[in-house]
Amino acid sequence: MWHAVGYYSYTKLWQTCKNRTMNKLSIILLGSLTFYSLVLVGQANKFNIGLEGSPGLTSLRGNDILEKFNDPTIGFSGGLTFQYNFPKLISIRTNIAFERKGAIAKNQAIDVFGNQIGEVTIHTNFDYLTIPLLAKLTFGNKIKFFVNVGPYSSYLIKQTTVTDAINEFPKSKSNNTSNFNSIDFGLTTGLGAGLPVKDELLITLEIRNNLGLYNISSLPVANDGSIKTNSINLLIGIAYRFGIRNINTH
After folding, report:
1. End-to-end CA distance of the chain, in Å?
2. 231 exposure class (CB count in 10 Å sphere: 0-12, 13-18, 19+)
3. Contact assessment for residue 204 and residue 192, using Cβ atoms and an 8 Å cutoff
4. 59, 92, 158, 216: which has the highest count of C-beta atoms within 10 A?
5. Bigger pLDDT: 73 or 27?
6. What does the DSSP assignment read for 34-71?
């Protein structure tokens, strides 16, 4: 697994940098959530609350070894959504979602005698709690088309590597959470449409991309590279709308 991901030895310098970065990102995230909470409390008649989720396509990038030996794999995302609607076309949107990211690799397995015994599949999984803060632009009449853009921050719950069974070797699973930074952040973009079912209910479909911009590895990476995440999700959602905007653009 470490050959596919592309690690070198662990150093204290990287651990120190990781802790400082985590503290800064935690402050930014806490400030963003506090701001959003105050908005919702102060304007409780113009916001949406809902659920959304779906499978998606997820991948890792950032160094030559990683990109050579790993391919995209199926992940998923799901959670609660919150949206504050300004009087016209603009909204502020966020969600609290569980998100699985990662990649898949196929390598030749070797027995204790050095003989190749076949191809083995290795799944590298990252389980995150993800919170974006998005600006949303909505347009259209009956069908509400929209675009989202903004930063996201993720907290790593667990990282596991699963090696499928091959011949007499059983399936194995290892937990490597300590080898990765607890915080990831990046840029979220999305394009979708919403269909009102009743005055209070809205069904949405969105293609969303979470592009990781931060090196999630807490260990030095081969060739001065990095490990960054990416996920593309087709989100299906339903939301309850509290209050109606001043104009018919929701």
Report:
1. 48
2. buried
3. yes
4. 216
5. 73
6. HHHHHHHHHTTTSEEEEEEEEEEEEEEESSHHHHHHEE
| Chain centroid to CA 116 | 36
- The yes-or-no verdict on residue 248 having pLDDT over 70 is no
Relative to beta strand 90-110, strand 144-163 is: unpaired
Residue 105 · residue 71 · CB < 8 Å: yes
| Residues 62-76 pLDDT 10s | 998 888 889 999 999
Side chain identity at residue 247, one-letter code: I
pLDDT in tens, 180-216: 999 999 999 999 999 998 778 999 999 999 999 999 9
| pTM (two decimals) | 0.78
Closest CA to 183 of 218, 148, 150, 149: 218
Contact 26, 193 (CB under 8 A): no
Query: What integer best gives the mean pLDDT of the chain?
Result: 82
| Residues contacting residue 140 through CB under 8 Å, at least 6 positions apart | 193, 249
What whole-number distance in Å separates Cα of residue 36 and Cα of residue 17? Answer: 29
